[in-house]
Structure formats: structure tokens, C-alpha cells
Specification:
Number of strands: 0
Number of helices: 10
Largest sheet: none
Radius of gyration: 17 Å
Helix content: over 70%
Number of domains: 1
């Protein structure tokens, strides 16, 4: 399949915006990339490409946040991902993802409302809630390319410093997408066109990540939390629109 230059230009625009958001907040890029790129390319090309771009994005951020991540909870999240991701990839290859996108958007909007009203957990959840969150995230990431929302809510409703929440998200998304890309390869979803797309879009990703990360280090914690709530609401609305247009 030849890559249309106009379609690639549209993809570059969405990827640049998503990369800036990812560099600033530590999340949000996959939903922007999947939603925008799916306008001009089929999901079976977009989702594996986004896995690759997410890995590139994480590699640009990991060195600066590695020691800040909460690795105790991350271990249980990764265990859950290993259970849920294979099923999600099977569903990607065999079922439409639109209905589950609607469910994701509704749940995230409800949780966003709670966060905006000051809802917070007293501690980071233990092993069982973390493993269940990871399972849901893995399933959603394999099926729709949007696995971040459950883990975003997991960390940003907990009383951890924003640096810890952001760092943990970056580390989680990196491992999630490495596993997802490897499993996608076993199902013949990683094609020559996927590699071409990822190579074309890698530079906009790195530039956007660098600019967004510079913005984060200048932002007070309270302002950052407000941004997270607004971003979650916008992303939820984007998921609903995408499901409606599918």
C-alpha cells in the first residue's frame, strides 16, 4: 500500500500536537494519534504505528524520570497487562472497536468529573487493584490502541506527587507498547508500511516531546493537575466523536 503524501501531512500535524501533549503531561499522545491518523489511514495500520511512536516518545522521556517512577505498583500493573493485551490484539484483528471506545469515554468522563471535584485516594492502590487496572489497560491497548486512561486515573487519583505520577505513567506506557508491538508482530500486524510510517513520523515526535517536556518543568503542580483534568475531558470527547464517526 502506497502512502499518500497528503495523508502523511495530516498525520504529521496530529503527531506533532500529540507529542507536545505527551512531553508535557506524560500521556495523551496515543489517543490524539489514533484519532487523527485514523481519519486518513485504516486502524490496522495506525495502531501498530502508534505503538512504535509511543516507544520513541518514551525513550525521549525515560532517562529524566526513571528514578521517580513508583516501581512497586508498576510491577503489578505489568502483570495485568500480560493477561489483557493478547485478548485485546485478538479483538483488534476480529471485532470493531467502536463500542468499547464509547464505554471508555463515558467512564473517563465520570472519573474526570470526580477528579475535578477533588476526589482522591488515600494511598496508591495495592497489588490486586493494580493488576486489575493493568489487565483492563492491556485489553484496551490491544483492541483500540488506547490503553492509558485506566492507569492515568489510577495514578492521578492517588496522593503521589505529580512528578511520581507522571514518571510512573511514562514508564508504564513504554513497557506497555513494547509488549504490544511484540505481540502485534506475532499476528502479522507489523508490516513494511508500519515501519515506513513510523520512520516518517519519528522526527515530529521527538521535537514535540522536547518542547512539551520543557513546558512541564516550568509548571506549578496545581496548574498541572488542572491541565490533566481538562485534557482527560477533551480526550474523552474525542473518543466519543471518533466512535460516532466510525
Amino acid at each position: 500500500m502506497a502512502l499518500d503524501p497528503l495523508a502523511v501531512a495530516v498525520a504529521v500535524l496530529f503527531v506533532s500536537v500529540g507529542a507536545y501533549v505527551r512531553g508535557y503531561s506524560g500521556f495523551g499522545s496515543s489517543l490524539i494519534w489514533v484519532s487523527g491518523m485514523s481519519v486518513v489511514f485504516p486502524p490496522i495500520l495506525v495502531v501498530p504505528t502508534v505503538y512504535m511512536l509511543e516507544i520513541v516518545a518514551s525513550l525521549g522521556l525515560l532517562p529524566g524520570v526513571w528514578r521517580q517512577a513508583d516501581w512497586r505498583s508498576l510491577r503489578w500493573l505489568f502483570l495485568g497487562v500480560a493477561l489483557g493485551l493478547p485478548l485485546g490484539l485478538y479483538l483488534l484483528a476480529s471485532l470493531p472497536p467502536a463500542p468499547v471506545r464509547v464505554a471508555i469515554a463515558v467512564v473517563v468522563l465520570a472519573a474526570t468529573f470526580l477528579l475535578s471535584q477533588g476526589f482522591a485516594l488515600k494511598a496508591i492502590p495495592g497489588p490486586l487493584p493494580a493488576a486489575c487496572t493493568g489487565t483492563v489497560s492491556g485489553l484496551l491497548n490491544g483492541w483500540t490502541g488506547i490503553g492509558g486512561p485506566p492507569v492515568i486515573l489510577f495514578y492521578f487519583s492517588a496522593p503521589a506527587p505529580i512528578q511520581v505520577s507522571r514518571a510512573s505513567l511514562i514508564a508504564f506506557l513504554f513497557v506497555l507498547d513494547v509488549i504490544a508491538l511484540a505481540l502485534a508482530g506475532t499476528q502479522d500486524l507489523v508490516t513494511r508500511e508500519v515501519f515506513m510510517m513510523a520512520a516518517l513520523l519519528a522526527a515530529p515526535v521527538l521535537i514535540g516531546i522536547w518542547l512539551g517536556n520543557r513546558r512541564f518543568v516550568q509548571t506549578p503542580p496545581a496548574a498541572f493537575r488542572r491541565f490533566v483534568v481538562v485534557l482527560l475531558a477533551l480526550l474523552s470527547c474525542a473518543v466519543l466523536v471518533r466512535a460516532w464517526l466510525a
